[in-house]
Amino acid sequence: MSDRVGPGFSVRPATPADEPAMTVIQHSSAIHHATIDPDRWRMSTPEQAARSRRRWHLSQPRDEGLVAVAEDGTVVGMIELWLKRPRDPDGARIPRVAADLGLA
Fold first, then answer.
1. Mind giving me the DSSP string for 27-53?
2. What are phi and psi for residue 65, nearest 5 degrees?
3. Please, what's the largest Cα pairwise distance for the chain?
C-alpha cells in the first residue's frame, strides 16, 4: 500500500525542450487510433510523425500546450490547443472562435 497523496504527476506549460517527448506521445496515440479505426488512421514511423508534427506546428502554431510530468521528470501526457479565429469579420457568417484540442 502506498502512502502517496496526490496524483504522482504535475502539469505545466509545454516548452520547446518537451517537443521530443510530445512527439513520442503523439506517435503512440496515433498507433492506438490506427489499431482501433484503421479506416480513418494509419500508422506512421516515428520519423514521419516528427516531420508531420513539425510541418503542422510551422503552418499552424498552437495557442497553448500543457504537459503532465511524472515525479521522475518524464513527460507522460499532453494537451495542445489551437484557437480557430474568424477569417472574415465582415462576412455574413457570425464570427466565432472555435477550438481544436489535442489530448494524449
1. HHHHHHHHHH-TTT-----HHHHHHHH
2. -145, 140
3. 62
Contact 62, 18 (CB under 8 A): no
Residue by residue, DSSP assigns the chain as -----S-SEEEEE--GGGHHHHHHHHHHHHHHHHHH-TTT-----HHHHHHHHHHHHHHS--SEEEEEEETTS-EEEEEEEEEE--S-TTSSSPP--EEEEEE-
Q: What is the dihedral of CA 61, 64, 65, 71, to 10 degrees?
A: 150
Model confidence pLDDT, tens digit, residues 63-93: 899 999 999 999 999 999 988 888 777 888 7
Name the stretches of the chain with pLDDT < 70. 1-6
The one-letter amino acid at 64? E
